[in-house]
Amino acid sequence: MSDIRIAIVGCGGITLQNHIPGIAMCGEAKVTALCDANASTLEQARSQTGVTVTSTDYHEIVEREDVDAVIIATPNLYHGPIAHAAIKAGKHVLCEKPIAMSYGEASQMAEAADAAGVRHMTAFTYRFVPAMRYLSHLVRDGFLGDPYHFRCCRLQDWGSRDLGWRQESGLAGTGELGDMLSHRIDFAHLLYGPMTRLCAHLKRFVADRQGHASDLDDWSAILADFTNGATGVLESSKLATGRNESWKSQDYLEINGSAGSVVFLTGHWNQLQLGRPGGEGLETIQIPESFWTWPGSPRDPNQGDPLVTFRYDQAFEFLDAIRQQRDCVPSFWDGARALQVMDAAVLSARESRWVTLD
Predict the structure, then answer these.
(1) Alpha-carbon span 114 to 332, nearest angstrom
(2) Pair (174, 300) in one structural domain
(3) Are residues 269 and 139 located together in one domain of the fold?
(4) Which of 69, 86, 99, 322 is the most exposed place for a label (fewest CB within 10 A)?
(5) Which residues, including other chains, have CB under 8 Å from residue 33's CB and lie 6 or more apart?
(6) Which DSSP helix (H) or strand (E) runs through 230?
């Protein structure tokens, strides 16, 4: 098969840090076009990548004949319109999360992509952490027994820094709920399946960020029941003073069941902690090397910082699904399911009540 030709719409940090090096790792793929509404951001990406085809109009890019697939890394408001334009043009689409501004919009994107026969993927990057992959394997293998609890806690310290479009409801939809807790909602779905009902609380502590107004939550929490009978507690904050940022900050997940417990820390990419009935504490285990990379990925886990490079496997999964003409993991449907929970959380917080999910 000839090279898969990729256009990237949205050329900010996530594109330069994750998408560009991920594509470069894969081989038989190349970035042929770049787009960003901000001309200076576009020029910076052009100079760093050497890609000569650029535009500030995404329609010009997604409709090009020398483009097979599109990666969307823009503010959330534009995800849906760009995805629909790319799907209409017959392009495969990888979209940053949350993939839309609502569950309804996300479902329409997934339905349109299925109808057009194009591959579609949600950028739930943390699914590619080796320890998370092995944790999912343990759950499928029955390690937990009857599931009891799911809990996660994501704590970062962003202080009062300007968050750009992520602090504007018109561009982002939600704040910490969509930015960081959405990943943990996807964890919950991956490990335990759907939620049946939830109660949520969202709060904004910092209304002015370096002279720019913020009207979105910088802390969010969800209390939930799952269809498998388990309970869930999910929390995420940008204001955990002293906790640092990114993979240097706390990213904790624990699941408990009748036969065992498992603790996952994103910062410990090749370890899990296991608890067993009657045990005197948690036992740290090493992740088998067969789980260190996504199946088929050419990435060498011994090269570079593994807390960064695991993200490159996402590009491989997208490109491999295109080549094999199979569904991507995770797909737009996974993104839509997370948005269903997010919509319910916003409603719950606004009306101070439990919300049942269909």
Answers:
(1) 10
(2) yes
(3) yes
(4) 322
(5) 7, 8, 51, 53, 54, 55, 61, 64, 66, 67
(6) none
Whether residues 122 and 150 fall in one domain: no
Q: Which one-letter DSSP state was computed for residue 261? A: E
Rounded-to-integer distance, Cα 224 and Cα 151, Å: 10
Residues 110, 221: one domain? Answer: no
Is residue 316 within 8 A of residue 127, CB to CB? The reply is no
276 and 321 fall within a common domain: no
Q: Count other C-beta atoms under 10 Å from residue 225's C-beta.
A: 17
**pLDDT truncated to tens, each residue of the chain (358 aa)?**
589 999 999 999 999 999 999 999 998 999 999 999 999 999 999 999 999 999 999 999 999 999 999 999 999 999 999 999 999 999 999 999 999 999 999 999 999 999 999 999 999 999 999 999 999 999 999 999 999 999 999 999 999 999 999 999 999 999 999 999 999 999 999 999 999 999 999 999 999 999 999 999 999 999 999 999 999 999 999 999 999 987 789 999 999 999 999 999 989 999 999 999 998 899 999 999 999 999 999 999 999 999 999 999 999 999 999 999 999 999 999 999 999 999 999 999 999 999 999 8
Residues 289, 200 share a domain: yes
Q: 87 and 64 in one domain? A: yes
Phi and psi (nearest 5°) for 303? Answer: -105, 130
Range of the domain at 36: 4-126+311-330
pTM over 0.90: yes
State CA 287 to chain mean position distance. Answer: 22
Measured between alpha carbons, how far is residue 93 from residues 4, 5, 27, 116, 261 in Å? 12, 12, 18, 12, 37
The answer on 141 and 84 residing in a single domain is no
Residues forming beta bridges with residue 209, ordered by sequence position: 212
Look up the CATH number of the domain holding residue 69: 3.40.50.720
| CATH code of the domain in which 159 resides | 3.30.360.10
> CB under 8 Å to 245, separation ≥6 — which residues?
156, 157, 158
Split into its structural domains, the chain has a count of: 2
